[in-house]
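User: I've been trying to design a sequence by hand for this structure and keep getting stuck. Would you show me what you'd pick, starting by listing the structure so we're on the same page?

Assistant: Good idea, let's start from the same input. This is the structure you sent:
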């Protein structure tokens, strides 16, 4: 499990280094996650080509362990919120309004996208 966790963290580190080195407008861990996905897909493809069984190398076990304790990762965010309570108090109404507006806009975008895709699928079925 230690090697698998190291692989996950190494992918995150590589993603962070690439993002900072190339000044990409993307979070480093996201690029690291994409790299990990590519590595896992390549591993599966090579195992299929060799017609060998897919061995569980522990990445799944390590990720399940991380997911089981995911709530611990929210502790630093909670501490940050508590440290900035004065800022939240002074700008609380604006924050609530922005959050509400973003939820409404997200819902509208989702509905419009769904309706557009639904129409396109109906047109495709009519052909």
């Amino acid at each position: 499990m230690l090697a698998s966790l190291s692989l996950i963290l190494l992918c995150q580190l590589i993603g962070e280094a690439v993002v900072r080195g190339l000044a990409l407008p993307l979070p480093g861990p996201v690029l690291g996650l994409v790299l990990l996905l590519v590595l896992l897909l390549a591993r599966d493809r090579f195992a299929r080509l060799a017609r060998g069984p897919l061995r569980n190398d522990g990445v799944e076990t390590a990720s399940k362990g991380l997911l089981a304790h995911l709530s611990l990762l929210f502790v630093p965010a909670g501490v940050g919120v508590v440290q900035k309570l004065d800022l939240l108090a002074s700008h609380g109404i604006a924050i609530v309004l922005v959050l509400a507006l973003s939820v409404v806009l997200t819902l509208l975008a989702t509905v419009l996208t769904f309706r557009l895709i639904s129409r396109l699928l109906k047109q495709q079925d009519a052909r």
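That's my pick for every position. To get oriented when you compare it with your attempt: The mean pLDDT is 86. The chain has five helices and no strands.
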